[in-house]
Structure formats: C-alpha cells, structure tokens
C-alpha cells in the first residue's frame, strides 16, 4: 500500500479543506504526554475554561465537542423543551448543511425565513416568532444566527443586539453559530465578546475547525439560565470525546493568544485580494465580501476550465454563481494563480 501523496494546490471550495495550523499541531504534540483523566477532567480542559472566560466574559463555560454540527445540536437541544422550535434563515447551516441533524437527533423544529444576504432582521424573525401558546404549533424558543453567515456577510454588534433584545422581550433565547466568528470579528476589528456576550447572546457554538484545528469546536454557555443538561446531552449526542485533552489543547492554542485573529485576518485578506481581482476582470460578484468567502457568477466554460485544477462550490447552478472560499493558509500566490487562470480562460 502506497502512502497518499498530498497535492500542492490549495483549493477554494471550503476552509475545511485546509490542513492544521502548525501551532495547533504543536499543541497536540505537547498534550501527548503521560496519562491524564479522560472525558474532560484534565489540565487542558481546565485551562480552556480560563481562556474562554478571558475572551467571552467571566460567566462563560465551555463544553468541547467534536464538530460543528454536534455543537449546534447540543446547544439547541439544551436551550429548548421537547416542543420547542428554532427561528433561523433559510440559508443557515443548521438548515441546509447538517442533514437534518437538529430535527433527527435534536427533535427540534426549524422555522425558517428567507434572507437574501444571509442575515436575520427583527422583521424577519417576527414572521415566525408567533403562535405562542398555540398547541397546534411548535413553540418558538430560540433565534439562531450564523456569524459570519453562510453567504459571507457579517452582523454588526448593533444588529446582534437588536435581535437579542427582540428575542428576550418575547421570552426567547439567542444561539449563535460561530463557526466563522473569528472571521467576523477580524472583519469588524472587534474582540469576540463584542459580538456575543456584550450583545446578549445566550449560547455560542465556538468554531475551530474552519480556522486551523484538526477537529473540535465548543458549546460555550454565556448565560447558564439559558440551558439545561448540556453535560448530559453532549454524551447522549455522541459529542463527548474520551481523550478530550486533545480537543481542548487545540482550542487553547487557538484562543489563548491571537492565533484565531491572525488566521482569520489572513483568510479575510486573501478573500479581499480575490474580490479585487475579480472586480478588475469585470465579473459579476453577487454578495458583499465581508469575511473569507467570495460569491461570483462564472460563465459555464470558464468554470469548467478552472475545475481542471481547483475545487470550488456551485452555489446557484441556475445562474452560474460559485463560492470561492479562502483559508488561513491561502497565499497571495494561490489567489494570483486563480486570477491568472480566469484571464486565460477568457473571463
């Protein structure tokens, strides 16, 4: 059996395609010493609590999990009764890319609203935040917003605060899917808590994998009154890692200093460079470029030519829109090579 040969090409399909940041790998290696208690009773998970409190406030508690889908399902389950429902956009990751996990595993109802730029507004939330006390309708209990959104747009602190105020006034809670929270914070040049705790977010799914981790995310409870049974649900939902120190060590490496910010800034900067090059080519960019994704319409023959070398996602087959995603390890040369290929293909 031959060893798999890595490719030198960095693709633009997803920031999940990227490898592991060297500083994260070093943290995993450093944690690989001796025997320590399993399931989170280890020094790295203890240190993670301090790191999370430094970043998100004294009341924050982190529950490391294995992946983002697991983080979202555990968080939403813990926030809702069996009859509860979640208000989210039609393009939210929990709705479009988790294979029905909130419904299948969590037993939750998703109440979606159309959001052309991926962002909820109080007006959109109001379309589904209704029917309270109606036994015939799943009861809206959580507003879930994605930061940055699946369309690469970013909520400002004022926008998040407005949604939180509305939800809390209705007796609802707010969950943030923060798989790309670092990219949003880097775009706005704000600390993580300015987009979460300070705005009234109750529970956060804190991202890691898309920003350089091998695996791992965390459910971060910002308001303990917003959840019930997180520790039990994490086990029941198969998200309790036995050798949790290796998940926690990665999260500590990412968030203890500024690695999260450096990595996100790099990805965002490469997306901005790509956006500028596409603009110069006169291509139709369909959405704002605020984080690390660029959405652009490509002629079919041009897209086909690019696919000979790179992978990227078709976003809307009907009009040729594709998503080009940059990662923490995307280089200027990677971007310039793609732009040159577009020129050669006649874009």
TrEMBL record:
Classification via Pfam families: Beta_elim_lyase (PF01212)
Family affiliation: Belongs to the threonine aldolase family.
Tree of life domain: Bacteria
Native source species: Cellulomonas wangsupingiae
PANTHER family noted in UniProt: L-THREONINE ALDOLASE-RELATED, LOW SPECIFICITY L-THREONINE ALDOLASE
Name listed for the protein in its UniProt record: Beta-eliminating lyase-related protein
UniProt keyword list: Lyase, Pyridoxal phosphate
Entry keyword annotation includes Lyase: yes
One Gene Ontology term of the molecular function aspect: lyase activity
Alphabetized Gene3D superfamilies for the sequence: Aspartate Aminotransferase, domain 1, Type I PLP-dependent aspartate aminotransferase-like (Major domain)
Transmembrane segments: none
Cofactor: pyridoxal 5'-phosphate
InterPro entries: ArAA_b-elim_lyase/Thr_aldolase, PyrdxlP-dep_Trfase, PyrdxlP-dep_Trfase_major, PyrdxlP-dep_Trfase_small
Domain called Aromatic amino acid beta-eliminating lyase/threonine aldolase: residue spans: 12-297
């Amino acid at each position: 059996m031959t060893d798999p040969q890595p490719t030198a090409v960095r693709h633009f399909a997803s920031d999940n395609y990227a490898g592991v940041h060297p500083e994260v790998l070093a943290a995993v290696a450093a944690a690989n010493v001796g025997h320590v208690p399993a399931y989170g009773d280890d020094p790295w998970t203890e240190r993670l609590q301090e790191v999370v409190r430094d970043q998100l406030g004294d009341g924050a508690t982190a529950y490391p999990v294995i992946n983002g889908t697991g983080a979202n399902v555990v968080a939403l389950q813990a926030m809702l009764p069996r009859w509860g429902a979640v208000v989210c956009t039609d393009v939210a990751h929990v709705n479009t890319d988790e294979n029905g996990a909130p419904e299948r595993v969590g037993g939750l109802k998703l109440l979606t609203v159309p959001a052309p730029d991926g962002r909820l507004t109080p007006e959109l939330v109001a379309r589904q935040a209704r029917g309270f006390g109606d036994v015939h309708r799943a009861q809206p209990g959580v507003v879930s917003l994605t930061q940055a959104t699946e369309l690469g747009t970013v909520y400002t602190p004022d926008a998040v605060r407005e949604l939180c105020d509305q939800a809390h006034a209705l007796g609802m809670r707010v969950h943030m899917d923060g798989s790309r929270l670092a990219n949003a914070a880097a775009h706005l040049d704000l600390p993580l808590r300015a987009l979460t705790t300070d705005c009234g977010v109750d529970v956060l799914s804190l991202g890691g994998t898309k920003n350089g981790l091998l695996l791992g995310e965390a459910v971060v409870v910002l308001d303990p009154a917003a959840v019930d049974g997180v520790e039990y649900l994490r086990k029941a939902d198969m998200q309790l890692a036995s050798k949790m120190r290796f998940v926690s060590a990665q999260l500590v490496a990412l968030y203890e200093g500024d690695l999260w910010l450096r990595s996100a800034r790099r990805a965002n900067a490469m997306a901005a460079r790509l956006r500028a090059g596409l603009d110069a080519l006169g291509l139709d960019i369909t959405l704002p470029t605020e984080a690390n994704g660029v959405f652009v319409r490509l002629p079919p023959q041009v897209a086909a030519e690019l696919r000979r070398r790179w992978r990227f996602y078709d976003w809307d087959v009907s009009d040729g829109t594709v998503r080009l995603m940059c990662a923490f390890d995307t280089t200027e040369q990677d971007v310039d090579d793609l732009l040159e290929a577009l020129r050669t293909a006649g874009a």
